[in-house]
Here is the input.
Amino acid sequence: MENIHISRIEALRRRMAAEGIDAVIIPQADPHMSEYIAARWQARRWFSGFTGSAGDLVVTLSDALLWTDSRYFIQAAEQLAGSGITLMKDGLASTPSIPEYLLAHPGKNRTVALDAMLFSINAVDALSDALAAEGISLRTDFDAAEGLWTDRPGLPDAPLFIHKEEYAGESASAKLEAMRREAREARADAILFSALDEVAWLLNIRSSDVRYNPVAIGYLYVDAAPGGRARVFVSPAKLTPEVEEYLASQGVDVSPYDTLPDFLSRLPETSRVMVEAARTSGAVRDILGARAILAAKSPAAMPKACKNEIQLEGVRRAMIRDGVAMCRSLMEIEDRMAAGILTTEIDVDSILRRHRSLSPAFFEESFGTIAGYGPHGAIVHYEADEKSNAVLEPRGLLLIDSGAQYPDATTDLTRTICLGTPTPQERRDFTLVMKGHIALARMIFPDDTRGAQLDAIARQFLWREGLSYLHGTGHGVGQFLCCHEGPQSIRLNYVDTPLRPGMIISNEPGLYREGVHGIRCENLVLCTPAMTTEFGRFLRFETLTLCPFEPALFDTKIMTDDEIDWLNRYQARVRELLTPELDHATAAWLAEKTKPLSR
Amino acid sequence: MENIHISRIEALRRRMAAEGIDAVIIPQADPHMSEYIAARWQARRWFSGFTGSAGDLVVTLSDALLWTDSRYFIQAAEQLAGSGITLMKDGLASTPSIPEYLLAHPGKNRTVALDAMLFSINAVDALSDALAAEGISLRTDFDAAEGLWTDRPGLPDAPLFIHKEEYAGESASAKLEAMRREAREARADAILFSALDEVAWLLNIRSSDVRYNPVAIGYLYVDAAPGGRARVFVSPAKLTPEVEEYLASQGVDVSPYDTLPDFLSRLPETSRVMVEAARTSGAVRDILGARAILAAKSPAAMPKACKNEIQLEGVRRAMIRDGVAMCRSLMEIEDRMAAGILTTEIDVDSILRRHRSLSPAFFEESFGTIAGYGPHGAIVHYEADEKSNAVLEPRGLLLIDSGAQYPDATTDLTRTICLGTPTPQERRDFTLVMKGHIALARMIFPDDTRGAQLDAIARQFLWREGLSYLHGTGHGVGQFLCCHEGPQSIRLNYVDTPLRPGMIISNEPGLYREGVHGIRCENLVLCTPAMTTEFGRFLRFETLTLCPFEPALFDTKIMTDDEIDWLNRYQARVRELLTPELDHATAAWLAEKTKPLSR
Here is the structure.
């Protein structure tokens, strides 16, 4: 039986040949530059059969190639077998980039095509410049799946619901008014928001159009005049009378999702519309033409990142709820191991979901749970499947990275636990990671500090021994929104965003020994004022996550008094805040886990 | 008697009026963008009477204004009194920048003039763009002093001398050949070097045209053809037969300094000459026109910064010599205090110079000594003069920042000592600064780390108490060249230059309490490989400076075992390496100062 992907690509090539196109790029992307993509925009998967979350397909008249990164080399090789598609291993020195490949294979028409709906303005411009330099033209209106993918899913149409002001702490109308001020400051007549979390945050609405991120597929257009109107473009199927009434009360009109191009093209030629160049599609910019004002950063980015007091109250409440579920889950895993009940990595995921689901506030997970046992823990983006699913044995380390969406918070935490008596190497590795975690948690730093300035604080103890981890130390986190939220971060790469009070950020150093084990210790922390002196204002981190660290994994001989003191205070705080919510057995378990350590 | 500066400025205004110029900018600068400026280019001083090392004068037909920073507010106010020149306090929110001022005062001809010899390409372009946006034109060939400053000093003509290969570790011809490879890589036919330290480094020549930096005023043109010629443009008076012969042996021709414009203008129109945009004058670019290739960083920057093993041998030798002079100086200061001999800040400077001069290798100081007693220590760029010169009393802190030029090294160190029994506050402040110094000295970090990633390591203990310092933590240092040398640094601001083996950089955290005291602890460190593991190559710092820290100032109660251990090892190393070079009394003094500390 012929591989179905071969015939799909052949059908695409017939369209290409008919239209004089030499190559098509089919990315893993949606029109909103989202991290999680609805089924409607999974054309790369439909053409190639590859299901990974990152990777772009290039089809030429003679070849088909899929670029993906090291996380997916094995999976892609398996899924592409028999499809005739060549795997291009991104990140290897020997692998050309997509533009490099296209420049080397210009074809006879010297024409590359893509759908600019699926590329940011920055991405289209960079590609177009690179190709133009060699006389290759870029056609930006080519939807590869058109006419071929006959059973293509429609727009997601999960109902919209209101994110109540008791959680949001600020009305949509007030947020929109602030955006209008920003627009006028930039001499814009309006702002168009494409990023789904910004639309949701600005309007105080949520939905479940994609998994893990409770957003709605939509655009938001905000007129800059004081007290002006706003217009959200969403699928009409998503509306309820309650939501329609609510939106109207906030000065927001509603139009069908697919009427945006028409709406934008009818704006007066003199109108100036601000869009964020990194998160708005090239297609939208093409419609706006000279009306577009490209902004390097959305005016919603900083206010969304800096949570208000009401949001933070909700977050603190949710941390207790999530900590309770975590304690119950960790205890159940230990109990099963002690009773000799067969337990796998996938069981760990189910246990976490079951305990979180006990709370009516649980909405869904905030990302796919990573439960990596032993060597699997060293695969940073590991997600167990039926084939890889390991059985837990009474030895070694288990890394559990999980999180939940609640109406009052998005959580994300990682605990590394030992299933037997830990070895000296396991304790040493774990303690080196925790020394960095504690050093960052204890930092006090001046206003205006950038994340890249603090990153080494978390890495210094690993670096001293020639160890490191390749991911960032911290990412921003939304409130009942995206678990990965900008613009702040704590990482090696310099990002010109100051840490500001109200930002929530993860503190997650790790250490991964290939084929042995993986360790990560992750709490969410809140950036908050510490003091003001003659040297200015200083900030600190308040740790938000409430879940005990495994005491058996600490080697207190290599810890300072200050580090042990921080740990003991943290564990005591976890015990104090969670115990009132726990059944007797779990409370006893937690009391045992949080006993003070000493040397 | 009328202030002479009033009449000088009036004479300038007559020239301006005759030529239709509304405003002239007279900067503190030379054609090589140097830190220290020869007398010939001190026109700002000649017009204004202000002697500070930073500050630009603007003269309009009706006003004269001098912009300078907070270091010089008091001095400038005094020196400008009676001149009719308004002091513009740079850095205050209420002070417009020079472009802002010029835009607000365009004059009737809307014409601003300057001498583009004294502005970098980047500076001329930025100013020109800002003015052009408001329809103000910029004339770039106006030498304000021309025809007025009749006794203007000529070009410095100190003799050139050879920086021997036994110090440089690499021949000029080899360095030039490397530059030719860089030029060809950038598709350039030649490189023109304007930065004086690069000319000196590339040719292995030195001179004494300006104080503190042993450079020669000159340009270097390097033809990019393999084995091509180079041409240095210097005042003929600087040449000796030996140097001429030496330069010829390295493939270097010599032309008079002032023939550069003519030489450049005769280059073929198709020729491509690489210049560094930040350190080449706008005037040179104007001559080159379309022949100029602007580089963001000079190809000499990294090789000059990364010292070779022969250079480092010399540096280590010089550190012993400089440490001996420092020990003798510190002991003499203590002896004088004990004997009740009147000693002032200026005396401290003389004592240091006297002890350094005992070595025949001493060439000159590498910058003006800072000896700040008590509150003067809190003035970061303090230099004692007859008026400020404080008498040392048997109490309080004395900050001494000094350095020397030797043929084998440039040194720069700061010690803070106590003249009586230190107070708890003095010990605590000092120890917090030293904890940062030690943390940075002990760092191990991956290849490719930027200085901005390490800066917080030195500040963390101060930040924790709401304290900080406003200067950088570390600057690059040359070899028998500039004490402030790029491109590397360790500071809050992100600079995209990785730390690389062979770089010498200062480690100098501080703490300044206005009106009380200043503390700075500065050693030079060498960046050097530490280890290579499965996580890549790691680097560390080797401390080069050899001079004891004052033991009485440490509060070991707030130090960790690791910190005390580092300190005791450092002091022991200083003792071990310096004692063989010391007389009996100084050796005994050093033994006392370097006794191990404990809690």
